[in-house]
């Protein structure tokens, strides 16, 4: 994406709107620091000599943003710039823990990075406490000299009292509410939890201990779009108000069958309507399809507010069925409730359409926390197997009428849905693989559908159990839907 100085200023302007909005709803914001976990990737140079960097790195380089983060954040700049992701995470958490008493908010750009940080803390808290006790970062862990110097300056002096207090919270058994317990003055968690991040909400709420989850911004590498004017709304109610001077906004009307051939301006969108976002940016993208589908939730004065619905292209399909990211999220959200009797929660999931088998079928990879029990001989626990089979059936029941018809015993165009339970840490490994391929930690979003052979192979290698739907879903209205499709094609 082209990036210019002028555009960075525009993005920094939108960023500067966030604090006044939050100040309206949260008291005492200026009385402490934010622990923001940000990961800046190194710059590269294109063949024609232009600098190339991730959008977040550009944003971070804007003076206004850098100044705001270093004045009001706990992480040292060198820690955010450290190119080794593990070292950077360690160093930033160390700074955040050293400032424990001052932290009034905890966050990252997207929820995924924050969940990753909590999991990292679970395995590294003892070493972090040792460093606070010693008053310096362990050089064998933080090997990058500039990062270490910066962190040492933050940790500054041995503080056994602080180390013991943190260790007591971490060793207390359950990690429920750990964020609030470790940073008792925190007022909220700042991370995007809408769209594909909605899956992170239950885990984040578990760790948050009642702190509100605040999604402040809707933005992309192409342009920044809007802000959330009611930051304390529940994640499912969040709507973003587009800021009209960020770029020129247009909207392709979308209905259940896909897009409709109408493009409207920002002033012409209607409440309840679904639209695909199209932008013309100051940096030269002309009527560019961002790939996001939004729904108009209401208005702020005359400005429309949008709920993020889904990415346009994330579609599972093995026949004439089309299952979007949003459809899948809804079906999985309903089905995962069945895990409750097992005392397990769904930590992460993704899906792929297996068309190598005949008929093709949907495969979901689920990572459960804690992992389900198995017998010593590796055999599946009967109770687990029964619950997982019912989860498969419940996902199918939550999919649309076309899917259910194709799956019916009469048609058998789609095979029984399969859930493959993967071992703990699989989704971190998937994230690592994608980071190694060039993704940025801060901008990372768990893909809700995988197609690359490399990604599927990684997931496949970590499968601990396979379960199939034991019941074809109910057909109500399904045959009508398929007939309608058949008529249209
Ligand atoms: P990137 O260019 O990697 O930063 O990704 C931008 C994309 O992230 C957007 O086009 C959206 O699909 C997604 N995204 C950004 N902000 C939000 C948000 N507040 N809620 C849901 N999805 C978002």
Automatic annotation (TrEMBL):
Tree of life domain: Eukaryota
Annotated signal sequence range: none
Presence of the UniProt keyword Ligase in the record: yes
Keywords assigned: Ligase
GO CC term (a single one): cytoplasm
Domain GH3 C-terminal: 327-452
GO molecular function ontology, one term from the record: acid-amino acid ligase activity
Keyword Membrane annotated: no
Domain GH3 middle: 240-311
Family, similarity comment: Belongs to the IAA-amido conjugating enzyme family.
Name of the protein: Indole-3-acetic acid-amido synthetase GH3.17
Organism whose genome encodes this protein: Oryza meyeriana var. granulata
């Amino acid at each position: 994406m082209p990036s210019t100085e002028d555009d960075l200023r525009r993005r920094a302007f939108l960023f500067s709107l966030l604090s006044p909005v939050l100040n309206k709803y949260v008291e005492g914001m200026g009385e402490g620091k934010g622990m923001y976990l940000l990961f800046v990737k190194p710059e590269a140079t294109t063949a024609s000599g232009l600098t190339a960097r991730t959008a977040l790195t550009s944003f971070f380089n804007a003076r206004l943003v850098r100044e705001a983060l270093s004045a009001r954040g706990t992480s040292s700049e060198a820690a955010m710039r450290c190119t080794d992701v593990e070292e950077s995470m360690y160093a930033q958490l160390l700074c955040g823990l050293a400032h424990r008493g001052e932290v009034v908010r905890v966050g990252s750009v997207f929820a995924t990075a924050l969940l990753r940080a909590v999991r990292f803390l679970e395995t590294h808290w003892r070493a972090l406490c040792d460093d606070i006790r010693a008053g310096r970062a362990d050089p064998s862990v933080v090997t990058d000299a500039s990062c270490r110097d910066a962190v040492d300056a933050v940790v500054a002096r041995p503080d056994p009292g602080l180390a013991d207090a943190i260790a007591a919270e971490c060793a207390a058994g359950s990690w429920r509410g750990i964020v609030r317990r470790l940073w008792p003055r925190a007022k909220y968690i700042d991370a995007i939890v809408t769209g594909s991040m909605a899956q992170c909400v239950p885990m984040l709420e578990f760790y948050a201990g009642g702190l509100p989850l605040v999604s402040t911004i809707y933005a992309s590498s192409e342009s920044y779009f809007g802000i959330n004017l009611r930051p304390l709304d529940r994640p499912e109610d969040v709507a973003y108000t587009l800021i009209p001077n960020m770029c020129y906004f247009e909207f392709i009307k979308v209905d259940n069958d896909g897009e409709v051939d109408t493009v409207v301006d920002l002033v012409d969108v209607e409440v309840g309507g679904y639209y695909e976002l199209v932008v013309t940016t100051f940096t030269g993208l002309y009527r560019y399809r961002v790939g996001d589908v939004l729904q108009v939730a209401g208005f702020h004065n005359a400005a429309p507010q949008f709920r993020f619905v889904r990415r346009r292209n994330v579609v599972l399909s093995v026949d004439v069925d089309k299952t979007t990211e949003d459809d899948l999220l809804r079906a999985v959200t309903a089905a995962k409730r069945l895990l409750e009797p097992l005392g397990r929660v769904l930590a992460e999931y993704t899906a792929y359409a297996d068309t190598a088998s005949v008929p093709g079928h949907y495969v979901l990879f689920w990572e459960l926390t804690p992992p389900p029990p198995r017998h010593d001989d590796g055999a599946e626990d009967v109770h687990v197997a029964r619950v997982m089979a019912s989860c498969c059936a419940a996902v199918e029941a939550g999919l649309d009428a076309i899917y259910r018809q194709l799956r019916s015993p009469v048609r058998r165009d789609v095979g029984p849905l399969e859930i493959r339970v993967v071992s703990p840490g699989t989704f971190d490994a998937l994230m690592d693989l994608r980071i190694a391929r060039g993704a940025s930690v801060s901008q990372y979003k768990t893909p809700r559908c995988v197609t690359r052979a490399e990604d599927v192979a990684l997931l496949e290698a970590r499968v601990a159990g396979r379960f199939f739907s034991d019941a074809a879903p109910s057909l109500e209205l399904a045959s009508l839907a398929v007939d309608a499709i058949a008529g249209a094609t």
